[in-house]
DNA sequence: AAAGTATGTCGCAAATATACGACATACAAT
DNA sequence: ATTGTATGTCGTATATTTGCGACATACTTT
């Protein structure tokens, strides 16, 4: 296996990377924004709003669903997707903590060895 | 081109996805955390601390550098990397805004059509 | 029952990402 | 000048992602 040495990293790093990967495509960002903006949970309308084929959108939806960031509820013929707000709040905190950690450090102050 | 229809998405969505992609690998998350924790900007020591070959780490560094999330300063034989704190702060705000947008919405309240 | 509609899954093609050895470059030290 | 060290780049193999057409499934409607 010349791939995926993820096992050697922290659980935190892996989790952060996993969620980041879910957001690493504009279509998936757009889907989440769509679900957040629409008051009702839309279904195949999502595909209609995106510049991608229905198949591709369905796959992006499945990816988000696998991570449990969104959930689908079958309602007769259509499927109703909506955000998992609880998980999103957790993820938000995780990202916030990461960014605070990354930005609070003096990170090479003027007295340090290098001057970048 | 059966790939990268990114042009059809918002600049905001693309930017968010671009940064998310940078964080979509545990090694890159680890690199940022390392640079944040070490008071001095380390260089090849980064490679030594990660469970990856020097070559691979170098590539991850280049990726982060391309996005300007980190910067390198040549100091004789070694190269000094450090975080671009300013950009990281911007990115942090962008992510925060996104998560607030995603989590503040009622997102399928009890009165809505579907019950997820 | 038959036809229509909304979704999901499969299979394929092309693009990217990941990982690393081998080589090139650049500076330091002798 | 020659040798050694620290980094970066290139080439390559493999894994994964992306995108979509074609098909399968499930439910609704007539």
Automatic annotation (TrEMBL), chains A, B:
Molecular function per GO: DNA binding; DNA-binding transcription factor activity
CDD domains: HTH_ARSR (cd00090)
Protein's UniProt keywords contain Cell membrane: no
Coiled coil location: none
Superkingdom, taxonomy of origin: Bacteria
Keywords: DNA-binding, Transcription, Transcription regulation
UniProt cross-references to PROSITE patterns, sorted A to Z: HTH_ARSR_2
A Pfam short name: HTH_20
Chain ranges of the HTH arsR-type domain: 8-103
Name under which the protein is recorded: DNA-binding transcriptional regulator, ArsR family
Protein's organism: Hymenobacter psychrophilus
Lineage: Bacteria, Pseudomonadati, Bacteroidota, Cytophagia, Cytophagales
């Amino acid at each position: 296996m010349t791939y995926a040495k993820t096992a050697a990293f922290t659980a935190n790093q892996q989790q952060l990377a996993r969620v980041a990967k879910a957001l690493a495509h504009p279509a998936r960002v757009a889907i989440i924004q769509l679900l957040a903006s629409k008051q009702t949970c839309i279904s195949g309308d999502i595909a209609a709003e995106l510049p991608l084929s229905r198949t591709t959108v369905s796959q992006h939806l499945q990816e988000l669903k696998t991570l449990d960031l969104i959930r689908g509820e079958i309602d007769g013929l259509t499927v109703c997707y909506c955000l998992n707000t609880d998980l999103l709040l957790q993820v938000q905190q995780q990202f916030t903590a990461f960014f605070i950690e990354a930005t609070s450090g003096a990170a090479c102050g003027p007295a340090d060895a290098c001057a970048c």
